[in-house]
Amino acid sequence: MKRVLIMAGALLILGILSGCQGKNEGTSQKEKVVFWTSHGPPDNAVLENIANSYNATNPAVQVQFVQVPGSETDVTSLMTAVRGGTGPDVYMLDRFTVAQRASDGLLEDLTADLAKLDPNLKDKYLPFAWNEDQYRGRTYGLPFDTDTRGLYYNKKMLQDAGIDPGELDRKNGPITLERLREIARKIDMKDALGNYIKAGFIPQVEQGWHYTWGFLFGGEFADMGAGKVTPTHPGVVKGFQYLYDYNKEMGVHQVQTFISSYMPANNPPQQHPFITGHLAMMITGDWFLNTMRTYAPDVKYDITYIPVAKKGDKPSTWAGGWSFVVPTGSKKKDAAVHFIYWACGAEGQRIYTKESGHCPTLISISSDESIFTEKQTYFREALFFTKSRPPLPVGALYWDALSTAQDMVVQNVKTPLEALRQAEQQTQSQLNKFLPLR
Question: 223-239 as b/e, with b when 16 or more CB fall inside 10 Å?
């Protein structure tokens, strides 16, 4: 059956390529597709490898890989280029923002284009990932990768503090937040001025986001049926209260000083405090495996479940990921869609899973244990109990509002409820413009 599917896929690809070749018949000039991403080292090298691999097997189309400024919610470069008529043909977009960018008019509707390639495409991807690429029943991208989050721990730092790293082995299940704090206190170390030179754990660094803590405490961030954001849900408030209390105990100023000293903006990957021995534990995603493999192959570490609020609670995590989209105005839409179909298909996802540590969104690849390393096992298994962000047409705006609220809370400037009410007001007023959502 797999061989039949592969042959069928190959025939589809050959058909599209022959069409592209027809356009260029009589000339050696290849059709160029410009591909933008904001990803930096080390993942940008893997993405460039994917583009090069596509070029090597698709002679009619040449993908030009370009790295541009940006982030999960900052797409200023894309917006400026699209509105100026100089946008790329393919863009790598954080998937939870697809609905918002589609509502902004920045993305081409790919529903009909993808259906021609495979009318059953939806059934081949993880449901939450596919749903994040939808807006008002139309498809605006293909899921490329996904990720889950876990607790990384530096074994040597734990041992130096008299902690047996075996206690955190995931075969024992998740530890509690209370035990996490006890371990962290034994590692915390200050200099003569009272500033931390070693920290056991700081809840807001790396992937210690609002969604991480809100989901952990049973929070819900939106009621899609009612068309409402729900940042004041009791579970979300509890998550923010945890952030408030933890920073208050450690010392707000001292925590901020540690972060600015050891994790400044544009900090080289090899200077990350988890690598240099200044931060013992942190919550982050599977992509950090590539960072460790590239910049710290000798550091002894492992990954386990995110700690739970109380003993007996089920593990918690959440998944994000990126998608490939075609920005509005592309004059190479057919060729762009073909590249997206290939890159987000088995060939592209195999490369990215093996070389970057990210999890695939194709169900067939997710079930292929042979492409996952031992360190990736936790993240793959976590897909079975993961949650995901609500696919809102104000997803990026909501993220930024929650992030502002989190900043106020970790600095103890506002109480969790005050900060989250402000985020609710900022977001709901904009969400109302898109109601009903279904």
Answer: eeeebebbbbbebbbbb
pLDDT value of position 369: 84
And the tokens for 18? 């022959």
Contact at 8 Å (CB) between 259 and 205?
Answer: yes
Tokens of 262: 């050891």
Decide: helix, strand or coil at residue 217: coil
Output the six-digit token pair for 46: 């893997």
Residues 271 and 190: beta-carbon distance below 8 Å: no
Please state which of the four CATH numbers 3.40.50.1000, 3.40.50.970, 3.30.70.270, 3.40.190.10 is assigned to the domain occupying 2-147+321-388.
3.40.190.10
Within 10 angstroms of residue 411's Cβ, the number of other Cβ atoms is 14
Chosen CATH of 149-316+392-434 out of 3.40.50.300, 3.40.718.10, 3.40.190.10, 1.10.260.40: 3.40.190.10
Residue corresponding to tokens 């890989």: 65
pTM for this entry: 0.88
**pLDDT per position as a tens digit, 115-127:** 999 999 999 999 9
Q: Which two tokens stand for residue 341?
A: 């179909």
DSSP state of 163: -
Please tell me whether residue 90 adopts helix, strand or coil conformation: strand
Query: 147: which 2 tokens?
Result: 């990720």
